[in-house]
Write a structure and sequence with these properties.
This protein is an alpha/beta fold. It has 3 domains: about 300 residues, Rossmann fold, CATH 3.40.50; about 100 residues, Up-down Bundle (Four Helix Bundle (Hemerythrin (Met), subunit A)), CATH 1.20.120.640; about 50 residues, no CATH class. It is built from 14 helices and 18 strands. The chain has a 5-stranded parallel β-sheet with strand order 5-4-3-10-11, with helices on both faces. α1 packs across α8 and α4 packs across α6. Bound molecules: adenosine monophosphate and zinc ion. The site of adenosine monophosphate (AMP) has 17 residues, from α1 and β10.
């Protein structure tokens, strides 16, 4: 039996995937902060998890995928103030824009949950942490005491002393510079909610601990996001959740994506080098973007380079054309020729390689290589043949359907009225034969040349005119 292996940031190793409940996978991925349009860096991370979602389903698991929307945070407050709108107005607008981007990219989590819709649940957990003495109240908020949580640093593999050094905001009232806010007390003109300790708003980390466990259970299988979230966000999530429930591990597998870079720098709003998903979709469309993302392993960085997108567009078009052509060459006939038997073997191997690659930590570039190798073999095959056995065609078609449903490409319907194409070619041949009979060779040669350019080879033989598709 084949097994899925995945790289777990928590253990730092590739592990055999065994979900906590048989046949079921519960997965949470940190979502965006919608204070502006989302960019292609976000699209990279969410496409990666979408492909993981699709592959797990293909392998027979029932997957539940939850994504949060951070709808209260410093950046949102600042942008809303700049635009003279309420934070609710701002996040309503940009979360809708985000849902639209995800929909067009064919990415569909089962649940989107908003932080501000879960304040009471967050307060419950913070209360528990205060009662258990993991959290304390000071002038500006309620803080988590990282010294109380002995496993702090286990995800990012850092020692507590090291972590402390990296903190940016030294707050003299905190017990330890590494302590982080669970609840921030109200500041003027900021959205706020009542709490047992005073009005305020939640810190960023608590929303993910609370919402993931609300929808997926106290312990669940996969938690993911970009690798920038390993520390402090995910480290803090683990601390809060395991301290509150007393159960370990809160999450069994931690998966992190590499950055999408542009000119060697991480694409991010703060660096001012973003390409909105919206713009990229207009230029390349969802399928080219998705195929481009999967051309690199999800843990590796990827450079957003126009020439690579252009190459991806051409590759995708070549596969579409090949499948169109193959459809036209179908013939129902009994035995397979030698060339067909060989091709059948290659299809079988490509299938095996594809599955092996995807089972090995979702190795999409390797899986894609098996697809492109098969494309090469099919091209070689049809160079010399103008027909393909219907049963073999169906096997090839099923391989491509499998591949395209996992990667979310080749979904466009390109209907070809096959019979009409054939009849039109026959008609042109009849007209050309008549021209030849009238010795109008210049014109008949011109027709032959034009047909060749269209991929139709005309041969004048003693038995009459023959034609075949050429690739
Ligand atoms: P943010 O909007 O920055 O909170 O990011 C939301 C999600 O997108 C997080 O999982 C980030 O790690 C991920 N993300 C943001 N920028 C990039 C990028 N340039 N490449 C890959 N993932 C990113
Ligand atoms: Zn999160």
């Amino acid at each position: 039996m084949m097994e899925i292996k995945l790289f777990n940031t928590l253990s730092g190793k590739k592990e055999v995937f065994r979900p906590l409940r048989r046949g079921e996978v519960r997965m949470y991925v940190c979502g965006p902060t919608p204070y502006d349009y989302s960019h292609v860096g976000h699209a990279r991370t969410y496409t990666a998890f979408d492909v993981i979602h699709r592959w797990l389903e293909k392998r027979g698991f029932k997957v539940k995928w939850v994504m949060n929307i951070t709808d209260v945070d410093d950046k949102i407050i600042k942008k809303a103030q700049e635009e003279g709108v309420t934070t609710t107005e701002l996040v309503t607008r940009f979360s809708q824009e985000f849902f639209r981007d995800m929909y067009i990219l064919d990415i569909h989590p089962d649940i989107y949950c908003f932080a501000t819709g879960h304040i009471s649940e967050m307060l419950e957990v913070i209360k528990k942490l205060v009662e258990k003495d993991y959290a304390y109240v000071i002038k500006d908020g309620v803080y988590f005491d990282v010294d109380k949580f002995k496993d702090y640093g286990k995800l990012s593999k850092q020692k507590r002393e090291e972590l402390v050094k990296h903190r940016i905001e030294p707050n003299p009232n905190k017990r330890n510079p590494g302590d982080f806010a669970l609840w921030k007390f109200k500041k003027p003109r900021e959205p706020n909610w009542p709490s047992p300790w005073g009005n305020g708003r939640p810190g960023w980390h608590i929303e993910c601990s609370v919402m993931s466990s609300k929808y997926l259970g106290e312990q669940f299988d996969i938690h993911g996001g970009g690798s920038d979230l390993i520390f402090p966000h995910h480290e803090n999530e683990i601390a809060q959740s395991e301290a509150a429930s007393g159960k370990k591990p809160w999450v069994k597998y931690w998966l992190h994506t590499g950055f999408l870079n542009i000119k060697g720098e991480k694409m991010s709003k703060s660096l001012g080098n973003i390409i909105p998903i919206r713009e990229a979709l207009k230029k390349w469309g969802p399928e080219v973007l998705r195929l481009f993302f999967v051309s690199k392993h999800y843990r590796s960085p990827i450079d957003f380079r126009e020439e690579h997108l252009e190459q991806t567009r051409e590759s995708l078009e070549r596969i579409y054309n090949l499948l169109d052509l193959l459809k036209l060459l179908r013939k129902s006939k009994g035995v397979l020729s030698e060339a067909e038997i060989e091709l059948k073997e290659k299809v079988k191997n490509a299938k095996k390689e594809f599955v092996q690659a995807m089972d090995d930590d979702f190795n999409t570039p390797k899986a894609l290589a098996s697809v492109f190798n098969l494309v090469k073999e099919i091209n070689r095959f049809i160079k010399n043949k103008n027909e393909i056995n219907e049963a073999l065609y169906r096997e090839i078609d099923s391989f491509f359907k499998d591949f395209s449903s996992v990667f979310g490409v080749l979904q466009k319907e390109r209907e070809i009225k096959e019979e009409i194409v054939r009849e039109l070619i026959e008609l042109v041949i009849v007209v050309r034969d008549e021209l030849r009979r009238q010795k109008l060779f210049a014109l008949s040669d011109e027709i032959r040349k034009k047909l060749k350019e269209l991929g139709v080879v005309v041969e004048d033989t003693k038995q009459g005119t023959r034609w075949r598709f050429q690739h």
